[in-house]
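Most newcomers find our protein records easier to grasp once they have seen one. A learned vocabulary of local backbone shapes supplies the integers on the structure line. Here is such a record, shown just as it appears in the course material:
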Amino acid sequence: MSVWSALRVSWQAYKTRRKMNRQFGRREDPFSYATTPYEAARLAAMDEALGAGPLGPVLEVGCAEGHFTEKLIGRSSRVLAVDISAVALDRARKRAASAVFLEADLLTWEPGAEGPFDAVIVADVLYYLDRAGVRAEFAALFPRVASWLKPGGRLLLAHGFAGDKELARRRAFRERFERAGLRLVAETIPEADRGGVRCLLSTLEKI
């Protein structure tokens, strides 16, 4: 990565970190994970998409305050959860103490010896990174994340959308992972919505 690329990525991470720390700093559970039918339906659909039975190591990217992490620790041998907000992570550690939590930016972070994983969950993350200033780094993210899966491992993408234009952009994320070598297993939109926002849930598998 060149010096200018590193500066652009650092600036993007700074802006996103500041935004999310501000959001979580206003109050606990600012996105109402624990109280809205939309979030309950989204998390239940994500849990179902992982399939039945226990899992080995799992990576959750964008864990926020750990509401889905709490579900993962009940069925996974090891959970590594990553978020860019230190404020959210402080709460997540209290909610799911047995998981390992890291503050990191997906554009630059690598799991190293922690991988590969039986499942990788990327929820409400990619549209924060899809910015003109880091276009090359964003494009490189898709094969990187795909490489973190074991053969037969599953990638879950869960991103909210409002309207057809945003839905097409969310589907484009899934298509980029397909071009990176993953196979689409299922794609659903849970029934519940929140003020016109619904969730596109895509499940892909490493062949």
User: Anything to note?
Assistant: DSSP finds seven helices and seven strands in the chain. The chain has one domain: 3-206.
